[in-house]
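Contributing new records

If you add data, match the layout below exactly. Sequence lines come first and carry their own label; structure lines follow with theirs. Keep one chain per record. Anything else will be rejected by the validation script.
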Amino acid sequence: MLRLIRNGTLEVNEWRIFDNSSTPLPGDEANWMVSLATWTDNFQFLQKRKHPVGILIPPDAEPKDILSIDVSHMNHHPIAFIAIDFPIYTDGRGFSLAQILRTQHGWTGELRAVGDVLIDTIHYLARCGFDSFLVKEGHDPELALKAFETFTVHYQKSYRQPIKILT
């Protein structure tokens, strides 16, 4: 099912979250997302992979933990994207983490919102720096695409503009 909004289009999400309960690291295959803790603990191994990984940041991550990621490797291989988890749509910590990544850490790569990503929050997520969105199951991804057109005027000029949808 097409639930991933990326580059203004809908895509199938092929990424899976690695659960390190049975092995410490995923195999060197495409489309693995690892936790921030797994990335931090195993950076020296993960940076040697043929296939880049996504990093999943929990909503309770401390800014110092995010800022400890080696910036020299952030905007290219071995990181495919950074995802921030929204366990419930009312949890706004991910908005702040996105701003920290974009403004203080200089992350220019893909920043993905995952979890309880609702149609009503898509526009605001984009304003805080997210550029890809895994729409929650049960929500209409086509309507989520239209959410970028919700507002045409913004007062906060310092925030990134939402992606433009080509129609």
